[in-house]
Structure prediction request, 136 residues.
Amino acid sequence: MVDVQRPLPKTHELDTKAFWAATKNEELTYQRCDDCEAVIFYPRRHCTKCLGNSLTWHTATGRGTIYTYSIVRQSYHPFFRDRVPYAVAWIDLDEGPRLLSEIVGVDDPASLEIGQRVKVAWESHEELSVPLFKPE
Ligand SMILES: [Zn+2]
Prediction:
């Protein structure tokens, strides 16, 4: 049987390169605007609030809450096919960014709750680590 890998992001795109490089060290980073302090996520070259281009990288603690989630019960992708059912969630990090990821470490994804505390659970790969989340 062929070992099927998780589909991984491209690590050399200009806007997201630094984000993925930091994940290799298990650092979950986000940007904040120096002018208006807006939190920017996903990584970009400009502030989405004031359109300024002075953004600074910060490292999140990796802790947050489930904003909402959905349970995937069917997948045709060879990697995800054997993982169903699993939960995909929007996660509000304590520092402000909202990101989409998979919730791992739960036997029954239907037991998850909106507002539940989660923390990052890194899945290591050669060039990067994927930030998955598990209940705290
Ligand atoms: Zn701004």
